[in-house]
Predict the structure.
Amino acid sequence: MDLAEIMQVYFSAGMIKPIFIRTARAVSAQDSFNSNDLLQPVRSLTGNRFTYLEPNYQDYFTIMQLRRMSRITRLGLVTAIECLRDAGDIQPEAIITGTGKGSLTDTEKFIHAVREFGEGTLNPSPFIQSTYNSLNGLIGLHHHINSYNSTYVHSGFSLEHALLDAAIQLNEQSIRTALVGSFEEMTPEHYIIKDKLDFWKKEIDSPDAVMKSSPGAISGEGSFFFFLDYQQGAAPLQLVDLALLFEPGEGAVLRAMEGMLKQHGLGWDQLDIYLSGRNQDSRHDHYYEEVEHCLSATTHQLHFKHLSGEFDTAAGFGLWAAVRMAETNQLFPSMIRKQGSTPSMDYMLLYNQYYGKQHCIYLLKKT
Amino acid sequence: MEDFKRTLKLQIIEALNLQGMQPEEIDDNAPLFGDGLGLDSIDSLELIVLLERNYGIKIEDPREGRKVFESIHVMADYIQANRKK
């Protein structure tokens, strides 16, 4: 590995010890929240945007509580509540989240007000809620948790930084449990801005666009929460390792994967499930194709962007699916792109990249 | 005056994001803060913004605001006496 490649390896394999994921919750464009499953895939596509299915907030909050929560903070809080409930309502010793953009709705409201009214008469609420860590504050307040509380805002590495922070603290046993999550929303205005930057596919309203290779992706949004533990207990899945690469050169992703597998005494043919963040964006799909060429015929190949859409923290959908599949011991049929021959589900590799820049490799093991 | 109070209530419902609440549910004489509508200090700032934007009334001292925002009745009287637009 030369110096240039070392610079691309943002966080390499073997730098964390395994940690355990006890519970996982997801709100997405699929009916993933109520059942915590993927029973009936739906495509709530509007144009080229997946929008998440709103939980029934009034089951959780009064009108007076709801009025202080923006679209994304109420979503994140509900996801966190159910994730903690599944874990037996244990108070986590850390609340750590990642988000690419936070509450875009409130950010836009605040910026519009600055433009319209100058800097004199500005509403405080959109400003307060537009801050990235407002959701973490709400979770802490709601559950009376005043322990470690942090939010990472690092584009396509946001969720991964939250996981790394938790992993380091769990490894050191400075904490024993952590609630880790991500939250992302898309607004009509931000969609247009990113459209001008060529983020999205151009085929509008085409039901097949999501599966068709062309420049751009389908926009998505969602919230994903995980309850992490330093010891196994009843956790269905282990996060064995995590590697991050920034703008990797040719072959660097493969070398990082092979290094990770070797570090843990594994080969390609021992991977039971490969979870791919492939989004049919023809400009960057070559990264995924490289990996697919290395996979064994025994490995099940699963995709999820046709269900989640693309966003900074979309890997959360893949990680949630991995936890739920490990727990139920069943593959989600709507995610299978290529059925492998192996009957086991022990080792899973999750690979996701965000517009060719941030690349994340997760090695997971069913407990 | 009754029409104005209704308009004011609608503006408050929108400014404070009181989703699902109807103007009829807000008593003209009930306290807006504490026991009545249950508003808090951030709402007080939101109401100061509402008065300045909609009626050109500037309240520099938030303590003065708490007196003005005692109830819909008091607030409506204050606006009518001090409005610049």
About this structure: The longest helix of chain A spans residues 71-86. The CA atoms of residues 116 and 232 of chain A lie 54 Å apart.
